[in-house]
Amino acid sequence: MFTEQPISSEENICFPELSGNFLAQSGSFLIQKGYFLIKSGSFLFR
Questions:
Q1: Residue 41: is its pLDDT beyond 60?
Q2: What mean pLDDT do residues 19-26 have?
Q3: According to the lineage, what is the superkingdom (predicted)?
């Protein structure tokens, strides 16, 4: 019983880190996609 509690707390700490890392990766991907769209848009308007 006492050994199970630290494992569950470690898992609870680990899940927010994974979700935060996933959000950071998706956010950087959206920023790169937006930058590509702006770059292609400026190329079209020339």
A1: yes
A2: 78
A3: Bacteria
Distance CA 7, CA 41 (A): 51
From its phi and psi, is residue 5 left (phi > 0), alpha (psi between -120 and 50) or beta? alpha
Residue 21's pLDDT band (cuts 50, 70, 90):
confident
CA dihedral 7, 9, 12, 16 (to 10 degrees): -110
H helices present in the chain, as ranges: 4-45
Q: Which residue has the tokens 């959206």?
A: 30
Q: In this structure, what DSSP letter does residue 3 have? A: T
